Amino acid sequence: MHARFLKNTKMNKNELIEKLKVIVKPYVQDNAGFDNLTEDTDFIKDLKINSANLIDVILDVEDAFGIEIDDESMEQMLTVKAAMHIITIKLNAK
Questions:
Q1: What is the pTM of this model?
Q2: Backbone phi, then psi, for 25, in 5-degree steps?
Q3: Is 21 exposed, middle or buried (0-12, 13-18, 19+ CB in 10 A)?
Q4: Which of 18, 48, 67, 78 could form a disulfide with 90 if both were Cys (CB 3.0 to 4.6 A apart)?
């Protein structure tokens, strides 16, 4: 459902951050960190998302954006900024 909508849409930075917030919210263990989420937010350090749940976040990102994230990209997706970069690259490659 989401993938079809996003495929033909160019998202701006704020829209991408808002979409990521919806995806990560169920896994966040630090609500103060979530309330102050920026591009520099670290999923593990700032939001206290454990490594197992980080995999769930990545799978949810794949589903929400209709993209496939390879292992190398997964290892780099530790911050909001890195996730935004990878998502943008994958969407542009479609």
A1: 0.85
A2: -50, -45
A3: middle
A4: 67
**Amino acid (one-letter) located at 70:** D
CA 52, CA 55: separation in Å to the nearest integer? Answer: 5
Maximum CA extent, the chain: 35
The CATH number assigned to the domain with range 2-92 reads: 1.10.1200.10
pLDDT greater than 80 at residue 11 = no
Contact 64, 19 (CB under 8 A): yes
Task: Please report, for residues 35, 37, 54, 55, the alpha-carbon distance to residue 75 in angstroms, rounded to integers and kept in the order given.
Answer: 25, 20, 10, 10
30-84, pLDDT tens digit by residue?
Answer: 999 999 999 999 999 999 999 999 999 999 999 999 999 999 999 999 999 999 9
